[in-house]
Write a structure and sequence with these properties.
With 753 residues, the protein is of the alpha/beta class. The protein contains 22 helices and 26 strands.
Length: 753
């Protein structure tokens, strides 16, 4: 038997160690009062979750707010006004009137009238302050009411956080006189009229029955309280939850004779101040908004309603368990948590069970609260969580020690294997190092520039050829933004970045800046290696560019000679014949006509040669940049000479087309812009270059006068005929959409290849 017992003790050692440690620690912590605030806050939350109740129709409030004080013109109100107020209420014969206003000194005028009202109103209950304030003073009751034993205490109990969670039924005055609080006195007065009085249930008369309810005074350690001052006769405040609140009427309405008929007949009437300036506000468990704090008269009314509902309607009071029962409750939850942590197969399972049981604990406490029991939940919840964590941690520690022993054996076996793997890895590293050196040699000596960059465009590596041509080394990449340094303006920087990240493998000619602030003509193609890394391959095309420029210069010189030899001679002949014709046009018209015919022939020949020469020339703007740059420069030049609003945009990433294609597209755009400004009188012109994967589109759209295509003659300059001829030469497609008064849209589509 002893052996079996030792086995069981060893089996459950984690639980047997955890429960006394965690449970006992929480009991000691609770005795210090450290958990009291959390417990009463949890009680407040249950009050707020309680469903609303029907408003108690037995109580009516007569309130005095800021507007009433302004209407009265003074505060405190005069004895005349107070006497008139009580007299007006008396006319409807309320069962009892509670005056929650201090009146220890007369407020002239009308003191005699008020004294008469006090002596002729046996159901009027006044107030006095019994518990000394911070300055050691108390506020006495009106002497006339005190002589007739129509006085109650206005004192309310506040917890350390300033909330009303306990209610006084009666207490002892400084002269050892027993006095009911206002809320209790009004409730007992009301019940006495119905033949319901207190019936003592013990010799000390501390426990008594009142109608359907049994009252027991609150003890210092009841519920979540620890070492509370339980002086007087205290009960837990189980105030009803009314929405919106008690029926109320303002003092102004009563004094003006607007008191509804039978509103207060045979009811409890409380007269009190709700104005903010009087500062008679008290937080309760229901209070969540500082702007909706109930006034003292409302708190007294809540206590009255609680007592009436308990005595007449059987509404439960708030009870608590005994201290031993609460201690056992904590130990039980500590045991449950320890068992869960000790038997769980994983921390996740422990967490799930603790969460579910914590919800069950809170839900059960809330259900018992609705039945009239305040069950502590913070210490049990801490015991559940703490014990589960402690026992599970101990279990994990035990498992780790066993695992460590097993691991040592495996480490020895693994060590032998690692020694063999180390030898093999060294051999592999040597091979890899040789291959890396070979690759580095190839990369450094390959006659192209190579860059590696990430998905943001930041360059991480450049080879030796890059360093030799542009001057930037791999070491420089740690301190600079290479793309920004190589670009001569933000627009080119964005163009380079777009081309790099597109990684299409298409070559792009770029003039970029070197480290020593020179410019080098290069061509770049970019491809993507993986999701993070890209590679760029570049070539120095300065020699090719110089050869092209020399070729272009030769061609220009040739064209200049042709213009000089042909066009200049033609224009000279025209001038000579025009001069001869001017001399003969009057004297000998026949011979002048012959000269004019010769001028006509020379002009036509010169015009034909001019067209042939213009077609052979490539615009300089296309030599210095791409088609989009040329279009943008063209629109910027036109902006300077017109008030028309022009825009130039590109859709997609720019790429190079054949030189003659770019030339024709630029001339078509120039012709369309000129026509839109000169003839269509447009105020808005939009130019778009759409670079798709397989084709390129040039679109010029204006809001000008438009025209009828069928009525346009084909012989007026280049015009539409010139556009059609250019589109036909590059194998493209021309689409013109226009109507008179509706603007014009010209679209040219060419294949990328």
């Amino acid at each position: 038997m002893w052996t079996t017992l030792k086995q069981q003790i060893w089996r459950w050692r984690g639980v047997l160690i955890t429960v006394p440690s965690v449970g006992g620690g929480l009991l000691l912590l609770r005795l210090t009062g450290a958990l009291q605030l959390m417990e009463v806050v949890a009680l407040d939350q249950m009050f707020r979750l309680r469903p609303p109740e029907r408003v108690d129709s037995r109580i009516v409030l007569v309130t005095i707010d800021e507007s009433d004080i302004k209407q009265l013109g003074q505060w405190p109100m005069s004895d005349t006004v107070l006497a008139q107020l009580i007299s007006s209420i008396k006319q409807q014969q309320p069962r009892v009137i509670g005056l929650d206003i201090f009146r220890d000194l007369p407020v002239k005028p009308g003191h005699q009238a008020l004294a008469k009202v006090f002596t002729t109103t046996p159901n009027l209950i006044g107030i006095e302050n019994v518990i000394k304030a911070a300055n050691g003073e108390v506020i006495p009751a009106p002497s006339l009411l005190k002589q007739r034993d129509q006085v109650s205490a206005s004192d309310l109990l506040l917890d350390t956080d300033g909330r009303v969670r306990r209610s006084l039924l009666y207490l002892r005055t400084q002269d050892d006189r027993s006095i009911f609080t206002l809320g209790a006195r009004l409730a007992f007065f009301y019940l006495d009229k119905q033949g319901i009085s207190r019936q003592p249930l013990d010799p000390d008369q501390t426990q008594f029955r009142l109608g359907q309810a049994v009252f027991t005074p609150l003890q210092p350690n009841d519920g979540g309280y620890v070492g509370m001052d339980a002086g007087g006769y205290q009960i837990l405040s189980n105030f009803p939850k009314f929405q919106p609140g008690f029926r109320a009427i303002s003092i102004t309405e009563v004094l003006q004779g607007r008191l509804p008929r039978d509103l207060v007949r045979d009811r409890i009437v409380l007269i009190g101040v709700t104005a903010e300036s009087v500062k008679d506000k008290f937080f309760t468990s229901y209070t969540t908004d500082s702007t909706a704090v109930p006034a003292g008269v409302e708190v007294h009314a809540l206590l009255t309603s609680q007592l009436l509902s308990a005595a007449l309607d059987g509404r439960s009071l708030l009870h608590t368990w005994s201290e031993p029962m609460e201690s056992l409750w904590i130990v039980v939850w500590s045991t449950i948590g320890a068992v869960i942590g000790w038997t769980a197969s994983s921390p996740q399972q422990t967490i799930l069970k603790v969460v579910l049981l914590g919800i069950a604990l809170g839900g059960g406490a809330y259900i018992l609260f609705l039945m009239g029991w305040w069950i502590i939940i913070v210490p049990p919840l801490l015991a559940l969580v703490g014990s589960a964590i402690t026992s599970n941690s101990y279990l994990l520690w035990e498992n780790l020690k066993e695992y460590a022993r097993t691991l040592e054996q495996k480490v020895e076996e693994r060590t032998l294997n690692l020694e063999q793997e180390i030898v093999e890895r060294k051999q592999a590293q040597e091979t890899l190092s040789q291959q890396k050196q070979l690759l580095q040699t190839i990369v450094d000596h390959i006659p192209v520039m190579i860059t590696l960059y990430d998905a943001t465009g930041r360059v991480e590596f450049v080879n030796r050829q890059f360093e030799q041509i542009l001057g930037w080394s791999s070491a420089d990449l740690q301190q600079i933004d290479l793309i920004a340094e190589c670009s001569y303006d933000p627009e080119q920087r964005q163009q380079i970045l777009d081309h790099m990240l597109a990684a299409t493998g298409i070559w792009l000619d770029l003039k970029i800046r070197t480290k020593d602030d020179r410019f080098v003509n290069t061509a770049w193609a970019n491809v993507q290696l993986d999701n993070r890394l890209f590679v760029g391959i570049g070539q120095d095309i300065s020699d090719r560019k110089r050869a092209e420029e020399a070729s272009i210069l030769d061609e220009r010189n040739r064209m200049a000679r042709e213009i000089h030899d042909i066009l200049a001679q033609a224009f000279t002949g025209i001038l000579l014949h025009i001069g001869a014709a001017m001399e003969l046009i009057i004297k000998k018209p026949d011979k002048a006509e012959a000269h004019l015919e010769t001028v006509d022939e020379l002009a036509r020949t010169g015009l034909a040669e001019a067209r042939r020469s213009v077609t052979a020339l490539r615009p300089k703007v296309l030599e210095e940049g791409n088609l989009f740059d040329a279009l943008k420069r063209l629109t910027n030049q036109m902006k300077l000479s017109t008030q028309t609003h022009l825009t130039c945009e590109i859709i997609g990433t720019a790429y190079s087309l054949l030189p003659n294609v770019e030339n024709h597209l630029l001339r078509i755009g120039q012709e369309a812009l000129t026509n839109a400004i000169k003839y269509a009188h447009a105020t808005q012109i939009d130019v778009e270059l759409v670079c798709e994967e397989s084709q390129c589109l040039l679109r010029i759209k204006d809001n000008g006068q438009g025209f009828d295509i069928d009525q346009v003659a084909s012989s007026k300059g280049f015009g539409l005929l010139g556009m059609s001829e250019r589109v036909e030469q590059i194998g493209g497609e021309l689409v013109i959409q226009t109507h008179p008064g509706q603007g014009t849209e010209i679209v040219v589509v060419v294949n990328r290849e």
